[in-house]
Structures are given as structure tokens and as C-alpha cells.
Amino acid sequence: MDNENKYKELETVVLNRNQNKSYVTRLEMELGFIKTLGSADFFLTAYDIVNELKQKSVVVGPSIGYANCSLINFVLGLTTINPMKYDLVSELYYFSKYYPAISISVSDKKKTSKKSLARIKSAYLEIHELPMLKAYLSNNVKVDYKFYQKKLK
Known about the structure:
This protein is mainly α.
């Protein structure tokens, strides 16, 4: 499949997965970056791999670094941080020296098929197994999301 067809496929997936109509302008801008940079295949590969992992009940955690600035990464489920909520600038990702790359945290790397591991190596993806995610999945860890306000003097 050539770059134009890959781009059209990515565009369809992204716009179909988007549940928030106010994101369309930003998504179209990011899709334009991807088209110009010719990296639609990277996103489709990452999306396939993450979906495979999720279907095998592998917990996929947040990514690290500039990848969290991309709304497309969030809409595709590659990251768990919504860049719109935190006013993150997508250009930091698309024009960084690390683009295209993403580091994905998972609870169980062993459930990743050999075929996917080969695709990961060829697609600038990194998958890291985090013991905390594995413990969370087995209910050995209770995550406490309490935030305490500190009074300013």
C-alpha cells in the first residue's frame, strides 16, 4: 500500500474514533503533519499493536515524552494523556528529533506476539513492561488518586 492509501486509512480510523467534535480542527492539522512527513504507516502499525495487546487483556499505560502532545496518539489509544486538557502543543512531537517514535508501557510484554515484536523493531516503537502495571492488573496494588492541596502562605 502506498503512502497516500496509508494516509487515507489513518485519516478514516482517526476521524471515526474521535468522539469529541471540538477536536476535529486539531486532528486535521495533525493529520496534515503526518501526510507531509509521510508517517501514516507508523501510526497504523502502532495502533494495530496496541489493539492486539488490549484484546489480550494487557494493560497499556501512558507513554512518555513528546508523544503525549499528539491528539492523534490519544484518540488512537496509544497514549492515555489528553493533550487538549493540558494545552500541550502537538508540534513538539511532530517536529522533534525523535519523531516518529513512541514508547508504550504495558503490563505483560510476554503476550506480545513474535510477529508484533518484529513490527515493533521496524517501526520505531518501544514497549516496556512496567511491574506496577502488572501488579495493578493482578489487584496487588491499589491505586490512590488523592491529591492534596497545599496552602500557599
